[in-house]
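Ticket opened by: R.M.
Priority: normal
Category: complex prediction / small molecule

The reporter submitted a protein together with FE2/S2 (inorganic) cluster and asked that the result be attached to this ticket for the collaborator who will pick it up next week. Submitted input follows.
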Amino acid sequence: MDEQRKAQDPALVCTCNDLYITDIQQALAEGETAYKDIFAVHDMAPRCCGCVDDVQQLVRKWQQADTA
Ligand code: FES
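Result attached by the on-call engineer:
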């Protein structure tokens, strides 16, 4: 996790893979909600796992919006 890069770009979620909020939303729209599966949609895999909380937060937001 490159905290400095992440601070400079709020839309960037995973600095190891350059995974952005829109990439995660795309995976969620395809029905993926598990951390590793969200990466797999983009042929990526988590490395340091430092973004797991941020990814899970986006999943929760998506699920809440889906059930609202
Ligand atoms: S920031 Fe390292 S795996 Fe996402």
